[in-house]
Amino acid sequence: MCHRHTPSSKRTLSSKIFAKSAAIYSLPLTNYVVNIPKFKKNVAILAEIIKIIVMPARILVVDDEEDICTILKFNLTKEGYEVLSANSSEEALELNPASFDLLLLDVMMGGMSGFDLARRLKSEHDTEKIPVIFITARDTEDDAVEGLDLGADDYISKPFSIREVLSRVKAVLRRAAAGRRVPEDIVIDDDKKVVMVGGKEATLTRIEYEIFKLLFKNKGKVFSREDILSNVWPDDVIVTDRTVDVNITRLRKKIGEYGDRIVSRHGFGYLYEEK
């Protein structure tokens, strides 16, 4: 129920779109008060704000092993998430993937594989931005790289610990949310050879630093793996394209909420994308 705002210790969540409001109403939400000018004209805006602040993240677990689905659904639900599960990619497509905030996909399933499902979803406008975590028994570097090359945000190998899954889910959702609403607060100090994220130094190796500098200072430009190799590694060092992918994966994790801005363009390479 909406009511007029009275002074209290509650914080106020505001937005520039509300700055010129004359008639202000408020909706108490836990420790927040959302100011809403001209309520009838801003119902859609209010609904979106409530979704961001109040609604739990919706997660879709897709695995052909019923036990895995049950375990993940139980533990994720305990953490406050809204969780649905499917035992095949085909079943997942019937659940409207666009309505979820995160997808946990098994790779090896009968029919359409997790890779094929991700490839399809990443090619469609309504689902291309939904974060994806692969969970699979195929624990090889090539499999991990293929998943990340498809645009996945993380890759977890079976057997896994629930604690690890919960931690990675939380990190991916945090990065996704930050990418939508947090202004950029990341700086390269080329004299000291450090990257500052939110005022704190990210602990990067020399290679990770050079890769990030190359992408960050050329925002929006796609660099192939060969481009990155020639710009970052010494000529007398022999490395493969996969080495680039592994370093990109580590770099994404180390720069936290900005990790999802290093985007893979399937078949082309990587770029740093401004939100």
Question: How would you characterize this protein structure?
Answer:
- This protein is of the alpha/beta class.
- It folds into three domains: 11-53, no CATH class; 58-181, 3-Layer(aba) Sandwich (Rossmann fold), CATH 3.40.50; 186-272, Arc Repressor Mutant, subunit A (Orthogonal Bundle).
- The chain is built from nine helices and 13 strands.
- The strands form four sheets. Strands 5-4-6-7-8 form a five-stranded parallel β-sheet, with helices on both faces.
- Helix 8 crosses helix 9 (241-254).
- Residues 1-41 have low confidence and may be disordered.
List its salient traits.
275 residues; alpha/beta; Rossmann fold; Arc Repressor Mutant, subunit A; five-stranded parallel β-sheet; three-stranded mixed β-sheet; 36% helix; disordered N terminus
